[in-house]
Amino acid sequence: MLGQKIFLGKYRPKDHFTAIDGLFGIPASTPAEKIILDVWMKLAKIPDFILAPSQRMIDYIGHYHPEKPRYVIPNPFASEVMEKAPVEPVHAPIRLVTSFVLRPEKRPEILIEAYGLLSPEERQRLKIDMYGGGVLLDKMRRLVKEKGLGEGIELHGSVPTEELHRAKIDSDVMVSTSYGFDNQPMMFLEALAAGCAILYCDPYLREGTNKNNSILVEPTAESFAAGLRRIINSPSDITFMKQASKKSAKDFNYQSYGAKFNKILEDLANSRLHSE
């Protein structure tokens, strides 16, 4: 513990970082969040340069360490079964899928509430499969039952990876209700590989999302309901978005990651040569 404190500069008062709540959409209001930020930024001061998987993290760290060289290198993803799967036209009913641990920061209730705001006729045109275990699984199952939405929403709990990948291939839209929590969600990489459009609410989640393959809404149930209506009313657009996701997947495979990493190393080497 003592070694960790010294390593992180715990005993250097000048290296204190004041947390800014909501900076680039990241909360830092509680004592725990402020402590994490302080330790995180002390750690970020040590290396010669920073690698981060998202522009959000680069901008965030850059606020506290503007002098540090910083590079975005998104995490890669590979799944042979998903990569080989063709993109199918949109299904009827349209199939939506979520895939995350059911915890408060993922806000799974937002999608359930949004679906409940649709008319019975609108709900018949959608099928929602929610995957993942977690502390909110039973609560979400009760919520679906209480709202009488069982015909359109199924919570599967935790399933084997192979089953999960197959479910995404057979889906049309991947939904993320997370806001101010995620950095570069793995589920977005899976959506690209599987050929799913993306419905999400956090504007800082830029890696893997673009105007051709994604629908960005506000982080409320009402706004998600509007997004669901857009999906229902424009199924041909969803087919186009699915194809756009599949095309984007190549930018996040391991070959692309290797090329980006080598380019960063070349840039660093050249910068060092020019500074000597």
Defining traits:
276 residues; alpha/beta; Rossmann fold; 12% strand; 12 helices; six-stranded parallel beta sheet
Brief summary:
This protein is α/β, with parallel strands linked by helices and 276 residues long. It is built from twelve helices and eight strands. The relative contact order is 0.14.
Write up what this structure looks like.
By secondary structure, the chain is α/β, with parallel strands linked by helices. The protein has two domains: 2-74, no CATH class; 87-252, Glycogen Phosphorylase B (Rossmann fold), CATH 3.40.50.2000. Helix content is 46%, strand content 12%. The chain contains twelve helices and eight strands. The strands form two sheets. Strands 5-4-3-6-7-8 form a six-stranded parallel β-sheet, with helices on both faces. α9 (186-194) crosses α11.
Number of helices: 12
Q: Could you say which overall geometry the principal axes of the C-alpha atoms support?
A: globular
For the largest beta-sheet, the strand count, sense and barrel status come to:
6 strands, parallel
What is the typical, i.e. mean, pLDDT? 92
**End-to-end separation:** 38 Å
Radius of gyration: 21 Å
Strand order of the largest sheet: 5-4-3-6-7-8
Q: N-to-C SSE series?
A: HHEHEHEHHEHEHEHEEHHH
Counting structural domains, the number is 2
- The name of the CATH superfamily of the largest domain reads Glycogen Phosphorylase B
Number of strands: 8
The portion of residues assigned to helices is 40-55%
